Amino acid sequence: MKMTFRWYGDSDPVALANIRQIPNMSGVVSSLYHIPPGEVWPVADIAHVKDAANGAGLEFEVVESIPLHEDIRTGSGDRDRYIENYIQSIRNLKQASDVKVICYNFMPVFDWTRTRLDHPLPDGSNALVYYKSQLEKMDPLTGELALPGWDAAHSKAELTQLFDTYKNIDNEALWRNLEYFLKAIVPVAAECDIKMAIHPDDPPWPIFGLPRIITCEENLDRFLKVVDSPYNGLTFCTGSLGCAKSNDVVKMIGKYAAMGRVHFVHARNVLILEDGSFEESAHYSKCGSLDMVGILRALKQNGFDGYIRPDHGRMIWGETGKPGYGLYDRALGAMYLTGLWEAVSKNK
Ligand code: DNO
């Protein structure tokens, strides 16, 4: 297992030098944040991230993410051109870096969704939360809502148009569009020896009436069969899948690791509330609803040898920065996960 840390590039307030000092840290997970979804990633820009990471004594072996242009998900417009561009980005990564895994998602319009980004917790820290009652009052079509995972490039008019397009796209149509993408991309990924790793939908249920399909064991089974290749794998995000009580994440992660299809793990904990809302908690099992020991043990017992990163942290010790992506709580999370891994790796 390789411990990694998400780094947002030169503009990230979290310095590479600080990431390097976290024990057991092998590398950073990063992206080209200035390239709009759908455009080709230039070789020189990829090399820049690699050089920055390597210069700080860190690897750059995981991309999170090459975002998909929405035409690929809707199966319309210029999808073939955007898929060609995606393929070129994979080839450029092969040429200019040591990247082995690409994380991406197939969530229509909105990436991960929360209703508050700085909900105060009793210990004085703050965290991201998803309250169902708050979501019901949010209107995405105002164009005014902004969350860290959302593409701010969508104007109000574009959003309205996208929502119209999605009226004709049910789950089965979305599956067909995903299949079209995978059948084009996975052979190229295999040729480049770079593993594709889809991120589950976060949260794993439909948002604002838009379809979502990467949500549960049945659908992950189906996904892996669409193209039955190790190059078509998973970013197993414990917090995304785990906020639905119906997902047994310990069982699922063990099963997919045994199949050799988990290439990247996002490890975080969530506290599930009575009505199915949830708060992001510290990584420690007792702070949330997930069994982090069980998760790490399932990975170990099933031969996991991919990448892992501590996912979202709370904001603690007065830190300010990108919601979920400060240094301090994620560093605590990394150490906790490393400690668990060491413990489950001992025979006696
Ligand atoms: C949130 C992240 C996601 C993830 C994308 C992958 O913190 O896990 O935004 O990067 O869904 O494409």
Structure description:
The structure is a single chain. With 348 residues, this protein is an alpha/beta fold. It has a single domain, classed as Alpha-Beta Barrel (TIM Barrel), CATH 3.20.20. The chain is built from 12 helices and 12 strands. The strands form 2 sheets. Strands 1-2-3-4-7-8-9-12 form an 8-stranded parallel beta barrel, surrounded by 4 helices. A 4-stranded antiparallel beta sheet has the order 5-6-11-10. α11 (292-301) crosses α12. The radius of gyration is 19 Å and the shape is globular. It starts with a strand and ends with a helix. The mean pLDDT is 96. D-mannose (DNO) binds next to β4.
Can you lay out the helices and strands and say which pair or pack?
Elements: E1 2-6, H1 16-20, E2 25-30, H2 43-55, E3 59-64, H3 70-74, H4 79-96, E4 101-105, E5 116-120, E6 126-130, H5 132-136, H6 156-166, H7 171-192, E7 195-199, H8 217-226, E8 232-237, H9 238-242, H10 249-258, E9 262-267, E10 270-272, E11 278-280, H11 292-301, E12 307-310, H12 328-345
Parallel strand pairs: 1-2, 1-12, 2-3, 3-4, 4-7, 7-8, 8-9, 9-12
Antiparallel strand pairs: 5-6, 6-11, 10-11
